[in-house]
Design goal:
2 copies of one chain form a homodimer. Chain A is α/β, with parallel strands linked by helices. Chain A has a domain of about 240 residues: Glutaconate Coenzyme A-transferase, CATH 3.40.1080.10. Chain A is about 25% helix and about 20% strand. In chain A, the strands form 9 sheets. In chain A, strands 5-14-13-10-6-7-8 form a 7-stranded parallel β-sheet, with helices on both faces. In chain A, strands 15-19-22-26-27 form a 5-stranded mixed β-sheet, with helices on both faces. Chain A has a 3-stranded mixed β-sheet with strand order 9-28-29, with no helix packed on it. In chain A, β28 and β29 form a beta hairpin. At the A-B interface, β17 of A face β17 of B.
Chain lengths: ~500, ~500
């Protein structure tokens, strides 16, 4: 075990691989060439269609011990990964690793296949029950949680070699061109899948909407697709879009959003060329509403919005408040409908969005981002992976990527959740280092990182309730009491990888 | 020296590299992994702008013996390659190879720099004087002529490692996103440049139209661009578009076009889903005109048009005759204007267009293509590189790529040009093997490859003047006389590479 710079104990070896302890957000240099793959030659002009997922698994030559991937743009509506693992199991394959871009609650169906050894490793974060069971030691399956940018990096450097990518293809032709814009499973951007399409050793497009050649516009081209499989359905379209896409009506949320808007106003960033990202939560959308109003009022012409795109951002694009939307993932149907129509609505790969190891990702150009937290510590470190019960319940998403990239990252969170303090001495798990976090906004006040003295002064001048983060913690502890330390076993069940590939924290088994 | 399957003597080593003799169009299998390159990390969010081409050359670390590239989408209007070589020379660099996607007449300015050893090799075909001087032995500069698909293959496999690509960027932001759609040097598709952007070891975007971040739509992304350089002009916009973009009015040309249309009519290919490519010559455009009328008359709903795109194809797209245009290169301003506006007008890379070594290029899906010839032999082999004087005057373009890919390739050419017979016993240089050529159309009659007996029968049935190719040759020789064999020196000054990387022919020094 070695200590990383944030004081977390990191194993030198995990899941058979040497691990690098996290040092800082910036200095780790890539020590790799871009991953390569065997070049194939297809002379024929005929269909690449195979009759079933099973046939495709056989055709790709998938073997015991190999790694597969899917993309998560269908989110909780995705059936493909479940169907795929069932077929892999039926074929008697074992010891398969999953390196999907994310695993959702719907994928709890994989649990029996983890128990029986069909699946023996997760090279990706999870949302929901699988993470909980792993945390409890009830599922034995080493897990490495990666951010969106970190996952792109790991595929591009070859650190995670994906043997076969099975990519949900909402609008696909028989020769393998596909896009996410049209069809019953339309998900809009295929930003995550694009990385796999370029870097997996074999690529299968799986579609429930086979269209005449060519599927236009071509998001992922025929030249990288080995096989096409038609299935009755890729999933449940109603669950493809995110649920929380409405502005909050909760008074605490509204207060937080208002303070966050004050922070943006005081930051000096709100001027022509402004760029901005929020997630989908009700508070984030409420901040976006404030931002829209500020931009309208001051006639600000923004540069771009990015990340997972919602209808809110589409409206801002159409209103001319932004020149462009960089879209790695559409969060709602309005975004899906826009990406097929608005020229400024630009589909980007997860690598272009957030990979730290290239000539500069889009997150580098962000002025301001609104991010969330399950816990925040007094050094501004943020946890989004585990809850205060120690269970791994959430994927990182782009959290640490945008925090590192943006000029100002603003964490919005209620001070107390389920009677537990959100600001505390130490977070259960560090997802995002405090060095990349600018401001913590709660309904009880705002804590500003010492890296932003001017912003702090301006907020104080405008009588926004700025508090020292320790003061904020004490105020919250006075209500909730000091949280009892969680009891963990020694066993490390997972790692949280920082975007550069170093290990920022571990997930330990929670004591029974 | 070894004989290839077409009876041409091929050197085993040329320009220091082992060469593979051509065997057939289909069987050579890739023996390579996709080329890789060092991964870089750029944390900053600032400008990548450098002050001049010279600064950029220095910043990229270009050294003696290295290889540079540019793209040819500005065609004869391009000033960048000339300016670049002048700066490289001024910096005292020597022994630089050029691996641009094509070299045009305007680049005769490079001749002094070849003479003095600044440039010592051409890993690309040339149009014009440079080729003539090389053919005459007056310029000592080994040249390897590649097709568009073959060049993409050579960069993707790493066979031609481009150290630095200097890419003309008609609409570019300071962080390196660019497209070809807008600005004084707008050229539309950046299909050739996209290959270099992915595979060159360093990438410089050179622009005369710096726009606020982000340059939308993003054709080539910031993530692959190391530096951006602003120059007063990339070239002469008037010469960016091709000259011959009008239907022929010459009676011989009109007759050829009519026969070619007869061939298409008799081929059985003209039905829903029809896909088609022509070049820009007056005869080709006249064939396109016939095709358009046939499609209208029979209410044919075509699939796609591809290749270099002209306004003709744009009109057919807008009329609904094609679902899509696959555009690797815009040939006129109407195409440039369309690609920024028509959703079905799809920009594709040269690799997607024609690389034989991937999961299937667009050319594989072509039904019918109209191609040209400087000479044709009685085995249907076609020359487009040299003229009958033996001078290397033309690049291959996509000639052998589309011939291999399309179900039916139709060569259109006058039977006699400048008193010389076009159909002859042997061509000076084999660009495209006869095995991939379906029909030869001249104003004196049509020769059909034995591979298409049904087509031949149908043409005869419809009283189209089908002739045996030897009969056609004799008829032409009766007018022109039998051409005197050209006298060559032993010295091989260049190679003609087939699309798969094997050597289909050599260019020998013409005897003085």
């Amino acid at each position: 075990m070695v200590l990383n710079s944030l004081g977390r104990q990191i194993p030198e070896i995990f899941a058979g691989k040497k691990q690098i302890p996290y040092s800082d957000p910036w200095s780790l240099q890539p020590n790799a060439e871009r991953s390569t793959r065997a070049i194939r030659r297809i002379n024929h002009n005929g269909s690449k269609l195979l009759g079933s997922l099973r046939e495709a698994i056989i055709a790709t030559g998938l073997k015991d011990g190999m790694t597969i991937s899917t993309h998560h743009s269908l989110r909780n509506g995705d059936h493909l990964l479940n169907d795929l693992v069932k077929e892999i199991d039926a074929l008697g394959l074992r010891d398969i690793k999953i390196a999907s871009s994310s695993i959702h609650i719907v994928h709890a169906e994989l649990i029996p296949y983890i128990r029986k050894g069909t699946i023996t490793g997760l090279e990706c974060g999870v949302n929901g029950l699988i993470g909980e069971l792993i945390s409890k030691g009830e599922l034995d399956c080493p897990i490495i949680v990666r951010s969106h940018g970190g996952r792109a990096r790991a595929l591009i450097t070859g650190e995670v070699p994906v043997d076969v990518a099975f990519l949900a293809a909402p609008c696909c032709d028989e020769y393998g061109n596909f896009n996410g814009y049209y069809g019953p499973s339309a998900c809009g951007s295929l930003g995550y899948a694009m990385v796999d399409a370029q870097h997996a050793h074999k690529v299968v497009a799986v579609t429930d909407n086979l269209v005449p050649y060519p599927a236009i516009p071509v998001g992922i081209p025929q030249t990288v697709v080995d096989f096409v499989v038609q299935v009755p359905t890729l999933g449940d379209p109603k669950k493809i879009v995110s649920s929380t896409t409405r502005v909050t009506t909760d008074p605490i949320g509204l207060q937080i959003a208002k303070y966050a808007a004050n922070v943006i106003e005081c930051s000096g960033l709100m001027k022509n060329g402004f760029s901005f990202q929020t997630g989908t939560g009700g508070i984030s959308l409420s901040v976006a509403e404030h931002v829209r109003n500020m931009m309208r009022k001051d006639k600000i012409k923004g540069s771009f919005g990015c990340g997972g795109i919602t209808g809110y951002f589409v409206e801002m694009l159409e209103e001319g408040l932004f020149e462009a939307l960089f879209d790695v993932q559409c969060f709602d149907l309005k975004a899906v409908e826009s990406i097929g129509r608005n020229r400024g609505h630009q589909e980007i790969t997860a690598g272009t969005y957030a990979n730290p190891f290239n000539c500069g990702a889009v997150v580098n150009r962000l002025d301001c981002v609104i991010i969330s937290a399950t816990e925040i510590d007094v050094d501004f470190n943020v946890n989004v992976n585990t809850e205060s019960n120690g269970y791994l319940l959430h994927n990182t998403g782009g959290h640490c990527d945008v925090a590192a990239g943006a000029k100002l990252s603003i964490v919005v969170a209620p001070s107390i959740r389920g009677r537990l303090p959100i600001v505390r001495d130490a977070v259960t798990t560090i997802t995002t280092p405090g060095e990349t976090v600018g401001v913590i906004v709660t309904e009880r006040g705002i804590a500003v990182n010492d890296k932003f003295p001017d912003l702090k002064a301006e907020l104080i001048k405008r009588r926004v309730p700025v508090k020292d983060i320790r003061e904020l913690r004490d105020e919250i502890y006075a209500i909730t009491g000091v949280p009892k330390p969680l009891q963990f076993e020694d066993k490390i069940v997972g790692l949280v990888e920082y975007r550069d590939g170093s290990i920022i924290d571990v997930i330990r088994q929670v004591a029974a």
